[in-house]
Write a structure and sequence with these properties.
Layout: H1 9-16, H2 20-27, H3 40-53, E1 59-62, H4 70-76, E2 81-85, H5 88-96, E3 102-106, E4 119-124, H6 136-145, E5 147-158, H7 166-184, H8 198-207, E6 210-216, E7 230-237
Helix pairs in contact: 1-2, 3-4, 6-8
């Protein structure tokens, strides 16, 4: 990521005091030069795993942003791929740098505007912190509705930071700052990544009609206890 091309502190402050949608509209032109974009090693590891499970027909990138996950879909899907997001600014950036083989749809993913069983594969990268825990069951039900039987819903999940580590305190500090911000400022900017716990998410996916499997993304390394630093959650519609 290039700091010189990324957003200034003032631009980040303006974004942080906006709604989620407007904040990403503002950030869109420089989003790909921030640490928020899913890094290539994660995308490559997910692509490798999905290739072993595919190929697939049509694919959807849920909360696609500027389209970091679109090349993953194009690598493993035979048919047309689609990106959906509620930020017009992020979609405009994605649309400007890809060809017409991708459909870019502006919509709230909590009410997906697609026919039942429209896709064979849905992926998502780094978006779930923007949904409150109470919203996830409805979101997962929406994803299930656009997948046919046997369709897959895949997304990477990093191992939680160990209590007391730098990563733990950094994430806790960020989460606390966001909660304080939302307590005193409107509109809210929802971004609570500590609420996305794998055990809870696995149960919610099962309740939505999925069978859940976990795949270690070994390219991203292992922790001292030999557990993977990142897993790919693959939920299969049943």
């Amino acid at each position: 990521m290039s700091a010189s091309q990324g957003p200034t502190l003032r631009e980040l402050a303006v974004q942080a005091l906006s709604s989620v949608e407007h904040g990403y509209d503002l950030l869109a032109p420089k989003f790909d030069h921030t640490p928020y974009r899913t890094p290539p090693p994660v995308l490559d590891a997910v692509t490798r795993t999905l290739r072993e499970l595919g190929p697939f027909g049509s694919g959807l990138d849920l909360c696609c942003g500027t389209g970091a996950g679109i090349p993953v879909l194009r690598a493993v899907c035979r048919d047309r791929v689609t990106g959906v997001d509620f930020s017009a600014g992020m979609l405009a950036v994605g649309r400007a740098r890809t060809d017409e083989a991708v459909d870019w749809i502006r919509a709230d993913v909590r009410a997906l505007p697609f026919a039942p069983a429209a896709f064979d594969l849905v992926v998502s990268f780094g978006a779930f912190g923007h949904f409150l825990p109470g919203e996830r069951p409805g979101l997962f039900a929406q994803v299930r509705s656009v997948l046919g039987p046997g369709g897959r819903f895949a997304f990477p999940v990093a191992a939680p930071a160990r209590p007391g580590s730098l990563g733990y305190w950094t994430l806790l500090g960020f989460d606390t700052a966001m909660r304080v911000r939302n307590a005193v400022w409107r509109p809210r900017f929802v971004m609570y990544y500590r609420d996305f716990r794998l055990a809870e998410v696995t149960r919610e996916l099962a309740d939505a009609g999925f069978r859940v499997d976990l795949y270690a993304l070994d390219e991203l390394g292992r922790r001292p206890d030999n557990s993977p630093r990142c897993r790919l959650v693959v939920a299969t519609a049943v």
